[in-house]
């Protein structure tokens, strides 16, 4: 999905470097007319390396550049001198990026830390002629050519790493909550699909603790089959530790809306049911005292043991309780 500067899915072509040729040189000095073989080995071709970078949050760097090629290894030379290895090509990606082989669909790597993964190794350098000297062949005029590098088409797929993921229909109040709790500035307006890209923010909690919250684009019924924004946003929910379902207080049927949200996530990936979650009833500022009590009683009856909080991002009602309960779930 691409929107503005947020890019979370790209296909690129990578090529590692060729190994350098081995040398067929023979030792020569002023008073030595027939020195032995001393051809050095060729250098290794450059690797294609994917490196996690915590300072990146999108794959925007790949929007206009899709082909990457590492340097070739240098050839061997005299005096058994090995050629220099080709320079590795390092491709920085955001944490949470999955690397897949386009041809097989195989997952090559999952980048969750600032570490290196060799995606395509460089070609081996060829051995120089001094390796092939033997009692029956004192002057080998043969050296190995370097091995060629390899081509590979790969997919980079970003799944956001966040502690809490906000799940809800369009206009449920997710963006407003994120803007209230964090310094993030998501687009907020009263029309469907205001959020066309995931937004991240850091929520400051008690005792100098904090956690990361992600506002995921709104779900519609049938999202698991690709309707609306479909699987383009559902992939990000897989990485969240805790899910916060947001249902507005003015929803026609609170239980039904939660059931649809839960069903879409389950159909996309049943393992999402294993995550801790809670329910946030947003927009409590539109409720009078009688309606507030009625909704609270309804939630107690409908959700049974599921934790819930009624809150308002506008009036700040219930915000502290919401953060406390999310922190408790994160540490269960």
Summarize the structure in words.
The chain is 17% helix and 25% strand. The protein has helices spanning 174-181, 231-237, 254-268, 289-303, 319-330, and strands spanning 2-3, 6-7, 9-15, 48-53, 67-69, 89-94, 97-101, 107-111, 116-120, 151-158, 164-168, 199-204, 210-215, 242-248, 276-282, 308-310. Strands 12-13-11-14-15-16 form a 6-stranded mixed β-sheet, with helices on both faces. Strands 5-3-10-7-8 form a 5-stranded mixed β-sheet, with no helix packed on it. Strands 6-4-9 form a 3-stranded mixed β-sheet, with no helix packed on it. It contains 5 helices and 16 strands. Mean pLDDT is 83; it is low at 1-5, 186-196 and 221-232. The protein has 332 residues and is of the alpha/beta class. It folds into 2 domains: 2-158, Distorted Sandwich (Spo0b-associated Gtp-binding Protein, Chain: A); 164-330, P-loop containing nucleotide triphosphate hydrolases (Rossmann fold, 3-Layer(aba) Sandwich).
Compact summary:
With 332 residues, the chain is of the alpha/beta class.
What would the keywords be for this entry?
Spo0b-associated Gtp-binding Protein, Chain: A; 6-stranded mixed sheet; 332 residues; alpha/beta; Rossmann fold; 5 helices
């Amino acid at each position: 999905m691409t929107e503005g500067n947020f890019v979370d899915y790209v296909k690129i072509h990578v090529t590692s470097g060729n190994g350098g040729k081995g040398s067929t040189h023979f030792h020569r000095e002023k008073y030595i007319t027939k020195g032995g073989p001393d051809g050095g080995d060729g250098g290794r071709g450059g690797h294609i390396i994917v490196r996690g970078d915590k300072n990146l949050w999108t794959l925007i760097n790949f929007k206009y550049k899709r082909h990457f090629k590492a340097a070739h290894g240098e050839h061997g030379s005299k005096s058994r001198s090995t050629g220099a290895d080709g320079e590795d090509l390092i491709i920085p990606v955001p944490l949470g990026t999955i690397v897949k082989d386009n041809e097989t669909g195989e997952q090559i790597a999952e980048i969750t830390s600032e570490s290196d993964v060799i995606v395509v190794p460089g070609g081996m350098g060829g051995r120089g002629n001094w390796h092939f000297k033997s009692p029956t062949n004192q002057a080998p005029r043969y050296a190995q050519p370097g091995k060629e590098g390899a081509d590979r088409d790969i997919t980079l797929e970003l799944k956001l790493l966040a502690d809490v993921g906000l799940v809800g229909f369009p206009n449920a109040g997710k963006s407003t909550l994120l803007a209230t709790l964090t310094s993030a500035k998501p687009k907020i307006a009263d029309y469907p699909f205001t959020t066309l890209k995931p937004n991240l923010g850091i929520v400051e909690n008690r005792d100098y603790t904090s956690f990361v919250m992600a506002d995921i684009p709104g779900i519609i019924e049938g999202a698991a089959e690709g309707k609306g924004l479909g699987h383009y946003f559902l992939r990000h929910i897989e990485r969240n530790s805790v899910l916060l379902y947001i249902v507005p207080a003015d929803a026609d049927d609170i239980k039904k809306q939660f059931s649809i949200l839960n069903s879409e996530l389950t159909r996309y990936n049943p393992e999402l049911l294993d995550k801790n979650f809670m329910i946030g009833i947003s927009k409590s500022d539109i409720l009078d005292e009688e309606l507030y009590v009625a909704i609270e009683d309804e939630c107690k009856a409908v959700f049974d043991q599921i934790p819930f909080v009624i809150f308002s991002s506008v009036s700040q009602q219930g915000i502290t309780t919401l953060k406390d309960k999310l922190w408790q779930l994160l540490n269960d």
